[in-house]
Design brief:
The protein is mainly alpha-helical. The chain contains 13 helices and no strands.
């Protein structure tokens, strides 16, 4: 159990590191995501069959996962676009809104009851983002892209729940990444025309950061979290993943000294978001105790 807990924390920490790498890599967001999908999916197609982890899927499932993969690719493009237009901290603050959009969209998409507590916590996050957006005009484009990124990720996560019960995680992610790569490969020439760039091939330093992003923050982080999920409860996983934007923002402060570039409005907004995370943790703890009492 302890090993699984450490694996999950390492996976969340690595996920928090993706924002730092997005800023270090000099490619624009479209080509960055294309290379990430190419390297990560190629690695998975080599490793997972050797591990006998890939399931056979129907054509219908492959098409559905591929469509979700394309939405996930758009999520990454807007996330890294937010970093390029603003900075890592602003992009991760917007990432915190995923929970709100999930709580808002899930009842509409899956016809399930609305969770009022999650809506309230999500509104706190949105209020924090709104404060930053209103008082600091430097980050408006980055915030808009970050919020779009959060909406896209929420939609992907909602629809993925239909498949996690019958398709193993390795198969899900391999087809999702491949499904994102194919349409993005078709559209990337148009994207390059709309958003001109200096280069589409990674520079020498970019290769190092890309491989770290793909092999450690994608493939390894995924494997660690998949292994941890086999031993840990959903409560522990939800609780731990609340730390992802926290880890990322702390890393951005340490690596890029972004705290020196951010105004008071950012920290006021961040305080509201942090408060929502603390309240969420308290609610999760209460829910877990209630489950334990009922089980006892």
């Amino acid at each position: 159990m302890k090993k699984a807990f450490y694996q999950l924390h390492i996976a969340v920490f690595l996920a928090g590191f993706t924002g730092i790498l997005g800023k270090l890599i000099t490619l624009n967001e479209g080509w960055l995501v294309w290379w990430r999908l190419l390297i990560s999916s190629a690695t998975m197609w080599i490793i997972f069959p050797l591990m006998k982890k890939l399931q056979r899927l129907s054509g219908k499932d492959i098409v559905a996962l591929s469509m979700l993969g394309f939405l996930a690719a758009l999520h990454w493009i807007t996330f890294y676009g937010s970093i390029k237009a603003a900075n890592v901290s602003v992009a991760l603050v917007c990432f915190s809104a995923v929970g709100f959009f999930t709580a808002l969209l899930e009842p509409l998409i899956l016809r399930v009851p609305i969770k009022k507590s999650e809506i309230f916590l999500g509104l706190l996050v949105i209020a924090g983002i709104a404060i930053i957006f209103h008082f600091d005009g430097r980050y408006k484009t980055g915030i808009i892209l970050g919020v779009i990124s959060a909406v896209l990720l929420a939609v992907v996560m909602i629809y993925l729940r239909r498949y996690v019960q019958r398709i193993n995680p390795e198969t899900l992610l391999t087809w999702q990444l491949t499904g994102g790569l194919v349409p993005l490969s078709i559209l990337i020439p148009l994207y390059s025309g709309w958003f001109p760039l200096n280069h589409m091939m990674p520079a020498s330093n970019d290769w190092i950061w890309l491989l770290v992003l793909c092999w450690f923050c994608s493939v390894l982080a995924f494997q660690l979290s998949a292994n941890a999920l086999k031993r840990l409860t959903a409560f522990t996983v939800n609780l731990t993943y609340n730390l992802e934007p926290v880890y990322g923002i702390i890393l951005a402060f340490v690596v890029f000294n972004e705290n020196k570039d951010l105004g008071s409005s950012f920290f006021i907004g961040l305080s509201l978001i942090a408060a929502s995370l603390v309240i969420h943790v308290i609610l999760l703890l209460k829910e877990e105790r209630k489950i334990e009492r009922n089980a006892g």
